[in-house]
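User: Protein folding is very new to me. Would you mind checking the protein record under this note? It all follows right here:
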Amino acid sequence: MRRIKSKDTSIEIKLRKELWAKGYRYRKNCKDITGKPDICFKGKRLVIFCDSEFWHGKYLQEKKYIPKTNKEYWLPKIERNIKRDKEVNMKLKNEGWKVLRFWQKDIEKNINFCIEEIKKVLD
């Protein structure tokens, strides 16, 4: 687990490069905003999170993939991540931020969809 990165992951970099190429300027990993969003447009009050399916519980919620070993550790850990994500979303929305979350597969396979969603909010 020591090798799991919390910032500058491949999906974050891919999304950021695409945004930069389209002329959007942003902040990354803003420590002064709840949840330390991966990408932040402070002026537009938009935060973006790039979530992997395993760590943020997409597979668990869809019952696609449930860890077979060490369940007593992994299930509560992933469930805490899901709960924390919901709490962060609510807190940010209450503070007036717009929150976008993209799954890893969305960024990898359909980045244009992600960019279009971001454009809708920014424009």
Remarks:
- The longest strand covers residues 46-51.
- The radius of gyration is 15 Å.
- The first helix runs from residue 10 to 21.
- The chain has one domain: 10-122.
